[in-house]
Amino acid sequence: MAKKVFFLYPHSVVQGQMIDLLIQSEFEVAVLKDHQRALRLLSKFPSSILFVNIEEHLSQDDWEVFIRNIVQGNSVHDSRVGVMVYNPNKELAQKYLIDIGVQCGFIQLKLGLTESAKIVLKALTANEAKGDRKFVRVSCQPGKATLNIRSHQDNFRGEIMDISSAGFACVLDGNPETGTEFDDMQLSLRGAIIHASGKLMGKRSEEGQEVISVIMFSEIDREVKGKIYQFIRKTLQAEIDSI
């Protein structure tokens, strides 16, 4: 099972570029701006991973108590912690890595985005944050993700139920055959319009419910995939913000 990855009070470079990179690497990531709420979320999502910026909001003593409590409560919620700072501090690094025992590293952002991201990705991989799935798939709220398809035989409209960078599940207003290829699909993802091609791979339904069609994307360009990842990021964040 995939694990939630939280960044508490992240530095600006993390909140921007690094989170985009992690979403594109298929991790479930969200930003937190309340340390008390962070504790509640760790209980709600066991086995989560929390990266904490200890240079803002609390004193060093208070951060030490906060993080030590999470590490010591690991047997209850099985969460892992990493620490992020911008300014290097060897003594502080030793305290958190050796004395407190944070499991996901002491990351010095001054090393640069590339090196910092490598450390974060290594920690996430070591802690099996992806679980057994290859792609982050998010559920879509009604009206937030819609679909128009133009084909040689017919046109279809639909509501997207969930989506990943590989494909999506939707309810269509028609009944195309499994195996049908669509060269002209227009998706509206929170108002962002993208054009892509795809193939209807299968259908599923339960008694009394609408038929769910599963469509996999054909090769899509970098810009289109970037818009899909932005939608995934916003949807993941909205899910956490609503709790």
Summarize the structure in words.
- By secondary structure, this protein is α/β, with parallel strands linked by helices.
- The chain has 7 helices and 12 strands.
- The protein has helices at residues 12-24, 35-44, 60-72, 74-77, 90-100, 113-126, 222-241, and strands spanning 4-8, 28-32, 49-53, 80-85, 106-108, 138-139, 145-150, 155-163, 167-172, 181-189, 192-204, 212-217.
- The protein has a 6-stranded antiparallel β-barrel with strand order 7-8-9-12-11-10. Strands 2-1-3-4-5 form a 5-stranded parallel β-sheet, with helices on both faces.
- A hairpin with a 2-residue loop joins strand 10 (181-189) and strand 11.
- The radius of gyration is 21 Å and the shape is elongated.
- The protein starts with a strand and ends with a helix.
- The model has no long low-confidence stretch (mean pLDDT 91).
Concise description?
This protein has 7 helices and 12 strands. With 243 residues, the chain is an alpha/beta fold.
Provide the succession of SSEs: EHEHEHHEHEHEEEEEEEH
Low-confidence stretches: none
Mass-distribution shape: elongated
Strands of the widest sheet, in order across it, are 7-8-9-12-11-10
Helix amount? 25-40%
**Largest sheet descriptor:** 6 strands, antiparallel, barrel
Q: Helix segment count?
A: 7
- Overall mean pLDDT: 91
The total beta strand count reads 12
Radius of gyration: 21 Å
Note the beta-strand portion.
25-35%
What is the CA–CA distance across the termini? 20 Å
Structural class by helix and strand composition: alpha/beta
